[in-house]
Amino acid sequence: MTGSAEADAGALAGGGDGGGAVVSLGDEWESDEGGAGSGRRPEDGAAKGVVAAFGQTMKTLRLREGLDRAEFGNQIGYSAATVASFEQGRRIPSPRTIERADEVLRAEGLLCLWKEEVERAQYPVFFQGMAKLEKEAVELVSYSMPVLNGLLQTEEYTRGLLAMRRPSLDEETIEQRVVARLARQDIFGRRPAPFLSFVLDESILQRPYGGKAVLRGQLEHLLLIGQKRNVEIQVMPLDREDNAGVNGPFTVVTRRDGKKFVYAEAQGIGSLQTDPEQGVLAAARYGIIRSQALSSRESLRFIEGLLREL
Q: Among 24, 57, 88, 289, which residue's Cβ finds the most Cβ atoms within 10 Å?
């Protein structure tokens, strides 16, 4: 990744507009979601430093309390081996884990000060801007194919996708990415609640990634999320002769200041577009897609029908 691209991504992560530029994410992007936000080991230099410093701080506080790794792990819900991974900077704890560790170690907020930086470190540097935008969104709309947007995925569905990766991922990497993806789903419980709209290509709902039991759980999960007042889920049937989403999946995020950002990817190459014109055009395209899909009520009935057939 070029230095200029990193600078643009950093500007977005800091809340800047990036001068209307398109931030290329490069083919090192690892996708399964839209892979957006696939958690991983802290492979970027700056992220490694942050996670290593946090781990050393946690270890120092643990030793101060006279706890071995097994004792400490038992109190925060992890094995001694996982605690070692946290302390050695090989694995990134979730925000809730950091809060629990702060409480157990009587750190008086010292560990919690690291939460934002440690959470950001779980994403590649080129996705950190998008991860921040998800947290600031007042509106997020997404068209999904050939897999569900990560915000909608169950843990089992995510594991199923990650297990299919080639070359294969080791178990620790899979676990880290599952944690990172599920952490993004806090968006559904945020207050004030953002407006969230998802149009799903029917093909996604027919594919038993991870097995039929996983698909059944995923469909049930969609029905539950679709009942939230701030969430609209629609299905684009396979028999539709018109579909404005033929160019592939994309997400439009609107910030409180009204500025729109567009994230899209294909074949492991993604981009976060900050050009206002592109944001307006993508939002308009999404509106057309919504009009071509089943209504929310029809879509939930459609998903219920698929469940009965499984």
A: 289
Q: Supply angle C-alpha 256, 119, 177, rounded to 5.
A: 110
What pLDDT is attached to residue 270?
64
Characterize the bridge pairing of strands 22-24 and 269-273. antiparallel
22-24 sheet: strands from edge to edge? 22-24, 269-273, 260-266, 250-254, 139-144, 195-201, 231-236
**Rounded to 5°, angle at Cα 177 from 50 and 262:** 90
Mean pLDDT, rounded, for 63-89: 96
What single-letter amino acid sits at 128?
Answer: Q
Region 265-282: mean pLDDT is: 84
**pLDDT digit string, tens, across residues 185-222:** 999 999 999 999 999 999 999 999 999 999 999 999 99
* Tokens 């407006």, residue located: 195
In this prediction, residues 11-28 reach a mean pLDDT of 42
Rounded Cα distance, 115 and 199, in Å? 32
